[in-house]
Amino acid sequence: MLNQPISLHSVSQYRSLLTLNPASSPVNPVIMADDTEEIPSELLTLAQALLVASKSGSLQNVKDLLAQGAPTWYQDEDLGWSCLHYAAERRMPELLETLLEGGAVWNAMDSWGRTAGEICLSLGDRAGWEVIRNDGIRSEMLAHFLGGTSSSSSATHLKLRANDQSSAGNNEVFLKSKLTWDLGEDGKERVLDADGNGVMMGWEEPLMKQHVALMIAGRPDTVGLAVLNIGFGLGIIDRIIQSESPRLHIIVEAHSDVLAHMKATGVYDWPNVKVLEGRWQDHLIGKNLKRVLELSADGFDAIFMDTFAEGYEDLKTFFESVVPDILEPQQGVFSFWNGLGATNATIHAVSSSLAELHMEDVGLHVQWQDVPIAESQREEVWKGVRRRYWDLPGYKLPIAKMCMH
Ligand SMILES: C[S@@+](CC[C@H](N)C(=O)[O-])C[C@H]1O[C@@H](n2cnc3c(N)ncnc32)[C@H](O)[C@@H]1O
């Protein structure tokens, strides 16, 4: 596609905060109008003509400019809009297709962190949005096959491992960070790290309920279930799992403050609970995995993954290298907190689809449940929290099972 540096978007997972707000994300320099001294004047003229044509010209006009080499990566100074943003306002899917074929970047963000996809959504233009989303999936898959997503070989692709050394972006730093438990202004319990990032917040309880309902729903004998949960946090999901009386309930937790809290509140004494202290990587990768399987020889009926300050690559390692070996192959369900691209609807959709394709690669077939979460949009929920880790009205909840061929 193109080699110019464009806005760099980090897709974070697990409440890491390197999302899409330009004020807080590690954004590469966007090529905007104020960088004009770096752009040869003929190219600049073509770039500006393409913005105008995308905004109000004909499709042929846009095609002609692309044929002349007009750059699709240029974003104007006022709004930070690219040709794709202007085209998105016109509800012309074919125009979007033409620009994307001409090299426009599906996830270029404007000054407010919105992609052209958000413009389509705000206008109710589903067809236009799908054109952009599908291009995003194609382009991210291609980047993945070429090995470009986890390294930073191209600044235009989703960066699946956030380059953030703070507590919210680096698991090692987080695990040394002091945690505090308090009540938010919404009256709900929350746990914050030393930087004031929300590690887990009470507004998520209905979501956690939904995860358990969908993982365990329709199972006739919940008493017989073996469940594995990664990441205790506030223990919301573990309490819900306990109410289903599983025969085995393993909790893997790495943070010493959380472990101390669990001891102090009697979690270690819950029926059939076994707490594995340490990182999931220590217990579930390599030879130690065997020890966990000895606790449930047929594998686990439900596995849930919800950590903090880890990236998509960690989640991918989990579902590639752990899940297929320990999920009960007939009925077992794997689910995870889907915080992928959590502040931008288009990026949430594209990164969820990318995860789906990666799961298919290892024989996990995923179905998505669209869950509305109006609660997360309330202002008081986020008072006293450094940054929102979630900013969407809807959540794509994954339910994955091994494909039986
Ligand atoms: C978001 S909270 C989990 C919330 C939980 N689902 C609930 O319902 O309350 C994330 C938890 O994962 C733990 N954690 C982070 N990295 C981990 C790792 N690599 N292995 C195991 N636990 C980890 C954190 O200490 C934290 O307790």
At the third CATH level, what is the topology name of the largest domain? Rossmann fold
The main sheet orders its strands as: 6-5-4-7-8
Question: Helix- and strand-based class?
Answer: alpha/beta
The hetero compounds bound to this protein are: S-adenosylmethionine
Largest sheet: 5 strands, parallel
Order of helices and strands: HHHHHHHEEEHEHEHEHHEHHEHEE
Describe this structure in words.
- Strand 2 and strand 3 form a beta hairpin.
- The N terminus is likely disordered.
- The chain is an alpha/beta fold.
- It has 2 domains: 164 residues, Alpha Horseshoe (Serine Threonine Protein Phosphatase 5, Tetratricopeptide repeat), CATH 1.25.40; 227 residues, Vaccinia Virus protein VP39 (Rossmann fold, 3-Layer(aba) Sandwich).
- Helices cover 36% and strands 13% of the residues.
- It contains 15 helices and 10 strands.
- Strands 6-5-4-7-8 form a 5-stranded parallel β-sheet.
- The site of S-adenosylmethionine (SAM) has 24 residues, from strand 3, helix 9 and strand 5.
- S-adenosylmethionine binds next to strand 3, helix 9 and strand 5.
